[in-house]
Amino acid sequence: MSILIRGSRILAMDAEHGSTPFTGDILIENDRIAGIGKLGDVAADTVIDGRDRLVMPGLVNGHLHSGEALFKGRYDNLPLELWMLYAYPVLGTKALSERLIYLRTMVVAIESLKSGVTCVSDDIFEFPGQTMSQLDAVFQAYADSGLRATVSSNIMDKKMLDTIPFTREVVPTALQQEIDAGPTPDIGGYLDFCKQVFDRHHDREGRLRFMIAPSAPQRCTEDMLLAADEMARAYGVPFHTHIVETKVQGVTGPEMYGKSLIQYMHDLGILTSNVTIAHSVWVTDRDIELMGEAGVSVVHNAISNQKLGAGIAPLRKLINGGVNVALGSDGICSNDTPRMFDVMRAAALMHKIATPNYDHWPVAAEILAAATVNGARSAMIGDEVGSLEVGKRADLLLLDTNSINFTPLNDIRNHLVYCENGSSVDTVIVNGEVMVEGGRLTRIDEGELLAELREMMPAFTEYHAGIEAKNSVLEPYFAEIHKRCNLMDIGLHRLGNEPTWAN
User: Fold this and answer.
1) Which residues contact 396 (CB under 8 A, 6 or more apart)?
2) Among 25, 155, 200, 302, which has the highest number of CB atoms less than 10 A from its own CB?
3) How are beta strands 275-279 and 297-300 bridged, if at all?
4) Helix (H, G, I), strand (E, B) or coil at 309
5) Given this model, what pLDDT does residue 41 score?
6) pLDDT at residue 220 in the model
7) CB 28 within 8 A of CB 2
8) Cis omega before residue 408 (within 30°)?
9) How far apart are CA 429 and CA 58, in angstroms?
10) β partners of residue 277
11) Residue 499's pLDDT is what?
């Protein structure tokens, strides 16, 4: 099967052209790009007229939690540690059905593809624990949708109350005992589970992969972190984790380990180029130095960080420090959408208020790189996707440049970052197959799937409202911890991060 795109503007994001557009043709044979440039008289099974079209690499969502899709639009004005009580409850949960998990994943896949996302790194956590059949449902949804996905089985093997400072001081003993009674995974069981997933799903259909995801260094034992690092290196996949998203987590390292969490990772010998870190909002200059030396990736979740009031990541320092910076939506209720054009715009804008030094503001080309080539590198598939180059997988978008978002047409890079919202996406190709054509999905019946989910939601919403009520008893205690940590001085002062508590 071959596809020829004739006479389009091309934004290759490769080493030769970067973000400078040029006019040419693209030939796709099977799942890969076979030619790019002025191709002359070339035959193909399908020919697409590229006039008035911009072709660019598919967007990469470097950090996503599709498991939150059932809570889309549900919460507001809750900082992370309080929001997690409801989105990731610790009391009274039961396992979800495989069908509900399949449908919630499909919601994310549908919105991702239609808005130009061709690749996601999906960090999955199930309550009260994950089964193989539940993870099978996630992989099956991505297989059916046509999206490229790297999926994890998120793990934490410490009691929740031992992962957040001051909980043992603040939370009443009876509640502590109820929370502690929940199951705790063991290392051997987790490694065996991961080996089975690698056998069942890794490199499936040339699109689907598995990664290792210790939830955060403070949420895992040292032995778990070391074992996870060894497995990630052995399989050549990311060690995907969360570090210092909030001020509370910025306090966590010094309180628990007498050092920052990045320093703790470094001292364990597991801060490597395999590591992809979500957030890194409250990192120190020394942390950034260690991260740059190690060649880690950071996924900047600009919208989620704003909605949860987490703070403003030091983007310029991370980039200048040699850290590979990608972009992510984060969860589908801490952001409420997986649309990466939204994230690009937010990331480009929010850092312009972080400093009056406009030489440090991100430019559109940097944001585009973060959403494409850098995102692919963060998933450790940079040799396969992220740019338009001969030999790479054919993951790309065609956008209509006659749309209102590109009118009048000035600098295409600025239009993509500041004007585009995904509505100009006309065609999406993943692995050489057209997954969206004329704005419509080609593989699945979107209406039928969404209708089925809507039928199931009343029962789920009633169940989850009961879970929220049960976990709400913890809110005043976590509010106290949030306030206490945010009033502590950890030596970081950035615009937007200073406490502003009223007396």
Assistant:
1) 26, 55, 56, 57, 58, 118, 388, 428, 429
2) 302
3) parallel
4) coil
5) 92
6) 98
7) yes
8) yes
9) 8
10) 241, 298
11) 40
**Gap between the Cα atoms of 206 and 185, Å rounded:** 31
Q: What is the dihedral of CA 489, 490, 495, 500, to 10 degrees?
A: -30
Q: How far apart are CA 392 and CA 31, in angstroms?
A: 9
pLDDT at 496: 40
What is the 8-class DSSP label of residue 435?
E
H or E element: which one contains 122?
A: strand 117-122
CA distances from 475 to 35, 376, 480 (A): 57, 38, 9
Q: What is the pLDDT of residue 500?
A: 40
Round to whole Å and give the CA distance between 181 and 112.
38
| 10 backbone φψ class: left, alpha, beta (φ>0; ψ -120 to 50) | beta
CA distance 55 to 49: 11
Distances in Å between the Cα of 501 and the Cα atoms of 108, 114, 416, 486, 498 are 36, 42, 38, 9, 9
Q: Which residues on adjacent β-strands are paired with residue 204? A: 208
Walk across the sheet containing 297-300 and list its strands: 239-243, 275-279, 297-300, 324-327
Q: Half-sphere exposure (CA, 13 Å, Cβ side) for 63?
A: 36
Q: What is the gyration radius of the CA atoms in the chain, in angstroms?
A: 22
Q: If we measure between CA atoms, which residue out of 488, 475, 467, 470 comes closest to residue 171? A: 475
- Three-state secondary structure call for residue 118: strand
pLDDT, averaged in runs of 10, over the chain (503 residues): 97 97 98 97 96 98 98 98 97 96 98 98 94 98 98 97 98 97 93 98 97 98 98 98 98 97 98 98 98 98 98 97 98 97 98 94 98 98 98 98 98 98 98 97 97 98 98 98 94 48 35
| Chain CA centroid to CA 268, Å | 25
Angle, CA of 349, 271 and 286, to the nearest 5°: 60
Q: What is the token pair recorded at 367? A: 């944001």
DSSP state of 398: E
Tokens for 387? 């740019």
pLDDT value for 490: 82
List, in sequence order, the alpha helices (H) in 310-440: 315-320, 340-350, 364-370, 373-378, 412-414
Q: What H or E segment, with its residue span, contains residue 477?
A: helix 475-486
Judge if pTM exceeds 0.85: yes
Residues 437 and 427 sit within 8 Å (Cβ to Cβ): yes
